[in-house]
User: Fold these one by one.
Assistant:
Number 1:
Amino acid sequence: MRETVHDTFVTLFVFLSGVSCSFSSNNGKRAIKMISFAMLLTAATYAASAMFNDNITIRFNVIHCIALSVLLWTCIDWIRVRCVRNWQKNVFGFVCFAAIIAVLVVGYCFKNQPVDSNNKAFFFLLPHTGFDYAHFKGGDYLPFFPDFAWFLVGAFLGLALYKQKTTLFPSVNPKYLC
């Protein structure tokens, strides 16, 4: 039960973080700040692990996942705004749609597969369930795949729904608030 609820809320959080990119005036600057904070968090937990002889290092959690997603979204959005012809927009849309599907498929296919502990390049990309995971206590670990796809879906949906950058919710009469 906890795993299902946890995964649902984390996915929703990542999705809404993607939507929020449509409101940011400078996603690149925000990504650099988030990556700096994530690296500082990793360094601090690594130091605490060394001090207390316990493996409490946070290697890649939701902050790292969203920070990397925002950075990649900045690059994707940079390309998107330069697609001015219809055929360019179509190719861009097809490539992004294919990438989202590929990230979802890869992420969910590997969800219950053990990952080779010698291949550190895939550590942050895919979920861990095998021997490597049994000896890993990495705090709030979140694999990049498939959550990056949900971030992209949120980012594209945010662009489509919030073109005017105004709320979609009707105003509420203040007398009903309290």
Number 2:
Amino acid sequence: MEPTKIDLIIQYALLVAGQEDEYLDQQLGPIHLIKYVYLADLAYAECNHGKTFTGIDWQFYKFGPWSEKVHERIEPALIALGAIKKTFPSEFEDKDDWVRWQLTDDNLLDKIDSQLPHPITSRLKRDIHGFGNDTTSLLSYVYQNAPMISAVPHENLDFSHLCEII
């Protein structure tokens, strides 16, 4: 696992969201960022014989692909960019407050774009524009992609067969 690569994808995802026209569409929460890192790894693995970009051991968890290491990297990666963190009270008693991050910076976006492989940048631009912070649609999409289709809850996800898809 390479924290620098994880940070770059997290930062890139937020900056891509920052390009959306509507202010609320520019904000992403932790669940969105984690799924976009997963989709970046998926895009990379599809072009690199099943090898992920980040080296994360993704696990099938409650809400699809999960990595505690990615979750832990969100705040430091976004604070390093100067992103704005917004916290909202949860509507549910047993849930933590909701967090949303936001940052618009064209220069930073261009800089990070040049540091990531094209399969990742093109996939994230498409997916973030398409799903943004729509949690339900994003989760549905993630569940319909390999390796989630053949995954077993609480086990690590297998990207090795992705090279056979292409």
